[in-house]
């Protein structure tokens, strides 16, 4: 018979049998565990979930105009690093420890008040008739929390501060004290006082006190912050608490503190910018005054106001001076020529041309013209008149007088021309020198003007930036626009209650299963054929009742295994059974020859002797039923049982032998040569 190893298989039939044996455990578990879960849920307060949302926006012109089309496209496709207001950065800021700590400090979330009403409790937030406050600095340094029970008795109260939950340790206790009352403990002082709100018939309250840090950590764990939509710059908040007002207040405060933190950051940067710009303006103003003084000094030293305006004037003045110089030089030459003619005492005509730059009817021209007319008359008289002629004498007298007058006038004009030449020459020289220096002056002036212009523009720019910094410093505009102030669901959240009930139901089912598995493992006896599946003997095992006398199934199985041979019967049942006799009777009724063989001594060893083996071989037909005197030592005759014409018939009583014991008892025998009868 082929043998299959079932050692690593899990047989649920054994587990199901154990469960049926201990049905009472399910009833007890359902009553205790599930009942406890139901009682806990009934006592537990309802929880309300608050929701709110915040839009991240940036209305500054600088942010709106920054980045061009590429940045706008990136923003459309929600690529956070390119948007004007990165939602990821704002989520990081909202979800910081500092925002949670600010919220805790503003709302005193480190102190939780619970109203005791018999077996039920109610969380109080802003509506408690009694309040507890900590001394300054206690909440910042408190390492471990504690609880305070307050029992109101009119205007008096009993107060007890303690630690622990099941095994409590009293920190301080006072009876019949008048409120407000301050109590000092080793964990700091606290004050209990009345708020003026009605007690509504309840007088027992419990305060849970923790540090700001612990409350902030708890708040960060309980508040859920997420992006509202991938295509929108929104942030959603969710917070669940036993108090409606507390849930809403926490979210509203968190959003307000986020905006306050943003404002603080904006004002901090604006103040730094303002201080820097103010200092820079002061220094720049001093530099600008110095630059203007240098420009003024440069203009004063070089005698001009504006090079661009003065250069044409200087050039025109120089050209005019050159022209005047040329005219004066021409006049001086003419006057010298006239004087030479007049001083030579020759009666000759004077050049009657107009001097350069003078009018034809000028004074010197008229004098020369009149002199030439008189000289012509004199010469005419000399040719026609005789010496001593009165007219000739009068003409000579007139010419002589006119010569003297002209010499005097021309001499004065000559001196005037010389003075003009001297003055004009000086002017022309200075003007030429000044014009030649103009490029150098212009370069120096441009440098000074450029420095002045840059400082003026920088000064104007810094003044504008300072005004912008002042606007930012006093601005109340924030990035976070509250779309939805906090609101709570109409119905309380059932999530935790359902989880607790589901956990109770699972425990009510699992606890009996675990107990049954432990009991099955501890019991681990052979009660049914499937208990021997691990040894591969389930198909070779049979349940036989003590009342049944028929062993036809066992007989037929043996007949299928062999048509003759030796069957070693080990009756290991603690109760006496007549199964061997009944089996012999069954074979006999079926027409098979059966020979019953018993040992002479109380050991199984003789069945391995040559004499016994030879005696068995002589019986070629029928079945030899060998009753083993030591049924627990079947392994001792394993060689005989493992023979091709031999079987081992092991009889055990249900629930009296362990599976491991049975496996050890038959470990040397081929499972195909074993038949097990379980007596029930």
Task: Write a compact overview of the structure shown.
This protein has 680 residues and is an alpha/beta fold.
Written account of the structure:
Helix 6 (97-107) crosses helix 8 and helix 10 (307-343) runs antiparallel to helix 12. This protein starts with 11 loop residues before the first helix and ends with a strand. The protein has helices spanning 12-21, 23-43, 61-64, 68-76, 87-94, 97-107, 138-141, 212-222, 244-302, 307-343, 363-384, 390-474, 495-523, 552-561, 579-589, 610-618, 638-641, 659-665, and strands spanning 48-56, 111-117, 120-124, 130-134, 146-153, 156-163, 169-178, 181-185, 188-194, 204-209, 224-227, 234-241, 480-488, 541-544, 565-571, 594-598, 623-627, 646-653, 674-679. The protein has a six-stranded antiparallel sheet, with no helix packed on it. Strands 14-19-18-15-17-16 form a six-stranded parallel sheet, covered by helices on one side. A four-stranded antiparallel sheet has the order 11-12-1-13. The protein has 680 residues and is of the alpha/beta class.
Give structural attributes.
52% helix; alpha/beta; elongated; six-stranded antiparallel β-sheet; 680 residues; 18 helices; six-stranded parallel β-sheet
